[in-house]
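Dear support,

We are seeing what looks like truncated structure output for some complexes. This example has two components. We would appreciate it if you could run it in full and send us the complete token output so we can diff it against ours.
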Amino acid sequence: MARTSDVATLVSQAREGQPRAVARLISLVEDASPQLREVMAALQPFTGHAHVVGITGAPGVGKSTSTSALVAALRAQGKRVGVLAIDPSSPFSGGALLGDRIRMQEHATDPGVYIRSMASRGHLGGLSWSTPQALRVLDAAGCDVIILETVGVGQSEIEVVGVADTVLVLLAPGMGDGIQAAKAGILEIGDIFVVNKADRDGASATSRELRHMISLADRPEGAWRPPVLKTIASQGEGIGKVVEEIDNHFVWAVESGELTKRRERRAADEIEAIALAALRSRMAGLGSSEALNDLAQQVVTGRIDPYTAAERIIEGL
Amino acid sequence: MARTSDVATLVSQAREGQPRAVARLISLVEDASPQLREVMAALQPFTGHAHVVGITGAPGVGKSTSTSALVAALRAQGKRVGVLAIDPSSPFSGGALLGDRIRMQEHATDPGVYIRSMASRGHLGGLSWSTPQALRVLDAAGCDVIILETVGVGQSEIEVVGVADTVLVLLAPGMGDGIQAAKAGILEIGDIFVVNKADRDGASATSRELRHMISLADRPEGAWRPPVLKTIASQGEGIGKVVEEIDNHFVWAVESGELTKRRERRAADEIEAIALAALRSRMAGLGSSEALNDLAQQVVTGRIDPYTAAERIIEGL
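Here is the complete output from our reference environment:
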């Protein structure tokens, strides 16, 4: 995959929906390939169609089961679906992650579903550019809906899911009650809250607590009011209603201008991350062997402070 | 805390070892205060003395108990000790984290011990500059040894602990066996491996497996060979040997030049992170309201690709 013609071929194969071409393009994103610029420029005109649905929640709430149930429901409507699972804390390559997921395997042979996990191997801010780029690949490949899932609910996970058009927050009775949700910062980012494993004790209490906390937030006229739904994802119960609310949120987001706002923010974050990565590599190119090492030595011996050193590096760019 | 004289006062109080001054300086780091530049320049000449010992390990291996036992052993030698606990995944402020730690509380009233937790509130790369800066505060305050502890063993934790002079990797029988250690990438970063809870089943097997994996690594002549020790930290058993090996590693690191190499790398990372943060804030200043939003709109509507947009942002800097 070194020549320009290969990129053009891959892009056109991906647009035809060939799974191997889609997979190779996402691998290029994951590997931070120097060919990405060309790939992204070629994909750009064919994007903007897919509805990106972010899913987050603590381990054990049933994210993968819920994703699988959502995929089944969306497929029943004839929609093409992409699933992108991100593991921000893993330095390892994707692929294996979803391989373990029995629930997902029922969709693995469906040509209308792309399933892919992605690790962030790269440097600082890697996820800020790699997530929108992987989404762009799936978008250009004709996905109607892309489910963006992260592992865990740390700050980086919240940032990743924050790029979605619609954010679904999953909880389970007894594990992620309202207070936990507030502490993890997911109360602010959720467009739809789903209490999964609703057949367990405490499901109604968790729902009530969430509704109460949501009701406390100040909302201007016409703002979206996040619904709190109950599901038993393993049995498909309540999933229809979740799909309905995902659609409702999309319609609201289009009409209110929120969709454009979010997508512009996502693009701005991506542009900034690419610019920073470029500056960083210039810095490494200029500095790492000579100037930066020399300045680092001076900081260690106490001759200059790190801020002065940083200024000299910037001057050198 | 707005005037220059206040910074000078705080710095001199911290150098005298006043705990409140130390705490306030670390809060300035945590808050990414604009006064940091001045603070770091004032502290710089008084640093380089402390031995930074990083501790990492999965939740449940007994990190906090081990840290507490190490503090007790180091205090018995008359050393001043700092403990800095970092939670890279938390967007929330520190303080509370260590408040829960019963084991730590026995040292809370000892004037020869500083205990502080720090969250990374900031932006991308925040830990790259905030960790060395907090270490610099404790160093200048006269700590002989600073224990740097992180929560969890994700990639960011490994990077944080990677700035230490000596890295201690904690495991427990049955939880973190050798394979897990290799997967998490801690096999490469550990200078000393400690199998805690050595009275439990499987402790010897875990030690053996670790020793075997360590023996497989290619090591040049004169390289440090990580020892594998066993402890029961809750009873203080084996801690003396751990302190001894920490000292041995320090002596080796000084003589081999590894200490200088690590500290220069730490300084280089810090300089780079400060430079990137400065460029980022310039970018935000220049772009965020006008140019960047305009470019983001063009990306969303498919008129330009994000790389071209990023180039225009860099040109504008």
